[in-house]
Design a protein that fits this description.
10 helices; 209 residues; 13% strand; elongated; alpha/beta; five-stranded parallel sheet
């Protein structure tokens, strides 16, 4: 929904860092173009806020306790009446903006940018625009595995080769727990429940290239 210029933009903030949370609260409360209707510390509380109060734009972290930014976007994917969401993160992984746009975010802003950049992003998103750093959007349409990090793609290829978790850990010189962590993220991103489904997704993706 595009916010009319005649009223303030209702914003909900989800930020795990108390100091940054306080700072951002001050920024939004001092600007009459916005109305900060709720502040939360994690993704679960952010989703609860959606159930309790209507608002226009959510500004959320990518790495949050209980439910991260990826999980929030996945939960909102099929919800037509949800707020527009901006990912606001210090994560420097260049793949995060691409994951965010693929999962339905409306904007992305790095914490390395000044607060004024976040304000501009919220204004633009509230008025119907998408705000992201440069992303090769052609890859989103042609590569179904575009949401995966290079490490996750490597693990997926190893899965397709029939390697066990222990064999992958040895091959990549990482711990078994790290392999399990990456596989969980991989399954979540591809919306699959097990390795057989992940391998089927991988093989289908290769056929379509």
């Amino acid at each position: 929904m595009v916010v009319p210029s005649s009223r303030p933009i209702d914003v909900v903030l989800a930020e795990k860092n108390p100091l940054l949370q306080s700072s951002l609260t001050q920024v939004f409360e001092d600007d009459e173009r916005f109305r900060l209707v709720a502040v939360t510390a994690d993704g679960e509380r952010f989703l609860e806020a959606i159930e309790r109060i209507p608002f226009d734009v959510g500004v959320i972290g990518w790495e949050m306790p209980y439910l991260d930014g990826r999980g929030v976007l996945q939960a909102l994917r099929n919800r037509a009446d949800g707020p527009r969401v901006i990912i606001y993160t210090g994560n420097s992984n260049p793949d995060v903006p691409r994951q965010a746009i693929t999962l339905g975010a409306a904007g992305f802003c790095s914490k390395r940018e000044p607060a004024s950049q976040l304000i501009d992003t919220v204004l633009a998103v509230a008025h119907g625009r998408m705000v992201f750093p440069f992303i090769d959007v052609s890859s989103l349409a042609t590569d179904p595995l575009a949401v995966l990090t290079p490490r996750e793609r490597e693990l997926l290829a190893s899965l397709a080769s029939g390697l066990t978790n222990q064999q992958m850990a040895s091959q990549l010189d990482i711990s078994l727990n790290t392999v399990k962590f990456h596989l969980k993220n991989l399954y979540d991103k591809l919306a699959v429940g097990n390795r057989a489904q992940a391998v089927a997704f991988y093989l289908k993706g290769r056929e379509n290239r």
